[in-house]
Amino acid sequence: MKKLFSAVLGIAAMSIPSTASAAGGWTNDVIPTKVEIVRNQGFLIFGAFGNLGSTPCATGDPVWVANTHSEYTELLSSALTAVAGQLKLRIYAHNCATVSWHGTDYNQLTSSGAMYVSR
Asked: Exposed (0-12), middle (13-18) or buried (19+): which is 113, by Cβ within 10 Å?
């Protein structure tokens, strides 16, 4: 009975859908080309960042930051400074997130991620 319960529990856990695709890892070090502030949702940083993880996002390269991020203002300021000053960004993105305005998913910088700014 215990083995049957474990098997059923394992199958049930595998059948739970994921809310986001599985990206994950460091982007390329790149000078971003632009920042798009998307309505009241967050912002996208455009550049040749790559498409991370074993299950890449539908759209590679841009990185999404939701306006719910605890350091949203600091990250937006850093991204705008990088574009204006032609500085490189390197970002750790954990997953993919759908941006409804664009209708596709992008690498997402979450509160568990990081951003480096360098020359």
From this structure: buried
3-17, 65-79, 90-104: segment of lowest average pLDDT: 3-17
What Å distances lie between residue 77 and 68, 81, 82, 109, CA to CA? 15, 6, 9, 15
CA angle, residues 96, 78, 117, in degrees to nearest 5: 85
Q: What does R_g of the chain's alpha carbons equal in angstroms?
A: 17
Cα–Cα–Cα angle for 90, 63, 108, rounded to 5 degrees: 100
| Stated pTM of the model | 0.79
Q: Give the integer Cα–Cα distance in Å for 89 and 84.
A: 12
